[in-house]
From TrEMBL:
Keywords linked to the UniProt accession: Hydrolase, Iron, Metal-binding, Protein biosynthesis
E.C. code: 3.5.1.88
Residues of the active site: 158
Pfam families: Pep_deformylase
Primary role: Removes the formyl group from the N-terminal Met of newly synthesized proteins. Requires at least a dipeptide for an efficient rate of reaction. N-terminal L-methionine is a prerequisite for activity but the enzyme has broad specificity at other positions.
Leader sequence residues: none
Protein name as annotated: Peptide deformylase
Note accompanying the cofactor annotation: Binds 1 Fe(2+) ion.
GO biological processes: translation
Xref: InterPro entries: Peptide_deformylase (IPR023635), Peptide_deformylase_sf (IPR036821)
Amino acid sequence: MITMDDIIREGHPTLREVAQEVPIPPSAEDVKLGEEMIQFLKNSQDPEKAEELHLRGGVGLAAPQLDISKRIIAVHVPSIDPEKPEAELSTVMYNPKILSHSVQQACLGEGEGCLSVDREVPGYVVRAARITVSYFDKDGNKQKIRLKNYDAIVVQHEIDHLNGVMFYDHINEQNPLHLEDGVLVIE
Ligand code: FHF
Ligand code: ZN
């Protein structure tokens, strides 16, 4: 079981590496890792389990955060609308790739945090509002999905980890709360 002790923190060199692509179809070991990453996210969002295991709530996790420099990410974003459970995004992606992105940009109104960063970093993290991503699933099938708004932000945060990029790299240094015109603010 993955716990907070398995997650490396900023300053660890692995977080600044470009992670290696994984062989497709994913090995049994990489499939198991993906399942454990999703389970961690589910546990972290379960109030009882999170308290018991001292987990910080998370919606995404990238293998480099476990000191595994492989291009594997997990996202578990629950649907905000109980009437629409199919809106949940819960996937493991092997070798994900952003094929295209919107010109329009977006950011979370609350800013971002990271399981590998034990401090508050204020500022808007401006990203693409919509992305098209290709990836391989656990069976080695190639998938292509379009994501927008919150889902798109989370997946970009995770893919950044595969490229050694941290969320605060995107914050305007001079003025962290400055927003250009047209940036969609997701509340
Ligand atoms: C999180 N937590 O998941 C943040 C951090 C925008 O690389 O967003 O570092 F638990 C991955 C519902 C809504 C339930 C939000 C991407 C953030 C990715 C993890 N929590 C939440 C929730 C959350 C990081 N990460 C603050 C831990
Ligand atoms: Zn992160």
